């Protein structure tokens, strides 16, 4: 049962080329030189293809923050202790985190899922409780989790999207919270691409040079110990990944299956995007890379996936913060397409001589 979604990967539909063509036609009739809105035009045309609507707009949109803990924190790979995962989840639920502020400003909701927080069960009326296990095991001593647990987490991500779509949500933003998760993301990146830990590992929450070197050794040894199979993305996810990262794989695949765009946030979200793309290459059409973060490895990771980020704000926070900022550009593209005058309505000559 937990593999339901994984058996339906081929049901991700191709983009609707007719809707894209109509959207392109509309853009060309607006009072501007053709193509002059650059990437906003490309974005709008793709959003039309994703949704199947020539004039797409997104009234209900939400960040999905997947939260989980990491056993590898025992190895001193983060500047902060594991308890911060749980404390930040309470902060999300009371609306005080950076992602909450940005989401309010962008008119998006924030949904938080406990998919693997360590310690006592967290009860809160607004927390989506789907805890699979209380954090992963330390991947330096053995696999982070079982394959079945990774598959279950993917299914949960899909189901959270499915339920939101049933409530009228049409656009998703990936978000995460999990102290230690840049280490898992770097390990996944190295295991799947062959890029060395020296290149895939970064400062995370703010390690100094010496601790970054130690983090790279931890990643290298975890890969040597667990032998993740580069041709089997779920094996990689289970052996050196994380529960929240697996949950985001499900969010990304689920959005595509429901013809919804999914905005990819920073480094950790991109590790999930890499797995989703390796499982189902056609999912790439549904992903919008919001920004390139400061985390070493992120630019290279995006390139591996085939994503071109819209923003470069030197951010390195996660939570979905970069994703929510990119939402403003999607809104800008939709507003331009629906509100600009056409050459005909404005009485402007649309003829051009070259
Ligand atoms: C207060 C605080 C808020 C955060 N919000 C996101 N992260 C980010 O930092 C973590 C990853 O970094 P590392 O792998 O170095 O632990 C993740 O939880 C990520 O979302 C935060 C981290 C902290 C400390
Ligand atoms: O790029 C990110 O999302 C990121 C980088 C560092 C720490 N947390 C998140």
UniProtKB/TrEMBL annotation:
EC top class, as a word: transferase
Keyword Cytoplasm: no
Pfam families documented for this protein: DBI_PRT
Signal peptide range: none
Active site, per annotation: 319
Cross-referenced SUPFAM superfamilies: Nicotinate mononucleotide:5,6-dimethylbenzimidazole phosphoribosyltransferase (CobT)
Pathway involvement of the protein, from the record: Nucleoside biosynthesis; alpha-ribazole biosynthesis; alpha-ribazole from 5,6-dimethylbenzimidazole: step 1/2
Family of this protein: Belongs to the CobT family.
Protein name per UniProt: Nicotinate-nucleotide--dimethylbenzimidazole phosphoribosyltransferase
EC number: 2.4.2.21
Native organism: Paenibacillus shirakamiensis
Catalytic activity, as annotated: 5,6-dimethylbenzimidazole + nicotinate beta-D-ribonucleotide = alpha-ribazole 5'-phosphate + nicotinate + H(+)
Keyword Glycosyltransferase appears in the UniProt entry: yes
Domain of life of the source: Bacteria
Keywords from the UniProt entry: Cobalamin biosynthesis, Glycosyltransferase, Transferase
Gene Ontology molecular function, alphabetical: nicotinate-nucleotide-dimethylbenzimidazole phosphoribosyltransferase activity
Known role: Catalyzes the synthesis of alpha-ribazole-5'-phosphate from nicotinate mononucleotide (NAMN) and 5,6-dimethylbenzimidazole (DMB).
């Amino acid at each position: 049962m937990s593999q339901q979604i994984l058996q339906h990967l081929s049901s991700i539909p191709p983009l609707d080329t007719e809707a894209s063509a109509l959207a392109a036609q509309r853009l060309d009739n607006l009072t501007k030189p053709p193509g002059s809105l650059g990437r906003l035009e490309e974005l709008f045309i793709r959003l039309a293809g994703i949704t199947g609507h020539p004039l797409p707009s997104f009234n209900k949109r939400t960040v999905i923050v997947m939260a989980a803990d990491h056993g590898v924190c025992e190895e001193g790979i983060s500047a902060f202790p594991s308890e911060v995962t749980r404390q930040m989840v309470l902060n999300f639920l009371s609306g005080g985190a950076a992602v909450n502020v940005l989401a309010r400003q962008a008119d998006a909701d924030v949904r938080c899922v406990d998919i693997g927080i360590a310690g006592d069960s967290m009860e809160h009326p607004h927390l989506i409780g789907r805890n699979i296990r209380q954090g992963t095991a330390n991947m330096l001593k053995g696999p982070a989790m079982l394959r079945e647990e990774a598959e279950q987490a993917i299914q949960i991500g899909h189901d959270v999207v499915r339920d939101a779509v049933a409530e009228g949500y049409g656009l998703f933003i990936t978000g995460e919270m999990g102290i230690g998760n840049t280490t898992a993301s770097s390990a996944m990146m190295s295991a799947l691409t062959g890029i060395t830990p020296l290149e895939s590992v970064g400062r995370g929450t703010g390690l100094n040079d010496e601790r970054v070197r130690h983090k790279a050794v931890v990643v290298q040894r975890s890969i040597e110990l667990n032998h993740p199979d580069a041709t089997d993305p779920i094996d990689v996810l289970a052996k050196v990944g994380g529960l929240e990262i697996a949950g985001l794989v499900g969010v990304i695949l689920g959005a595509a299956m429901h013809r919804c765009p999914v905005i990819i946030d920073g480094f950790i979200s991109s590790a999930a995007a890499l797995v989703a793309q390796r499982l189902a290459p056609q999912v790439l059409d549904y992903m919008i890379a919001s920004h390139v973060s400061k985390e070493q490895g992120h630019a290279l990771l995006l390139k591996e996936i085939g994503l071109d980020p819209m923003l470069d704000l030197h951010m390195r926070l996660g939570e979905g913060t970069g994703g929510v900022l990119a939402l403003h550009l999607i809104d800008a593209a939709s507003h331009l397409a629906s509100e600009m005058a056409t050459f005909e309505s404005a009485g402007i000559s649309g003829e051009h001589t070259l």
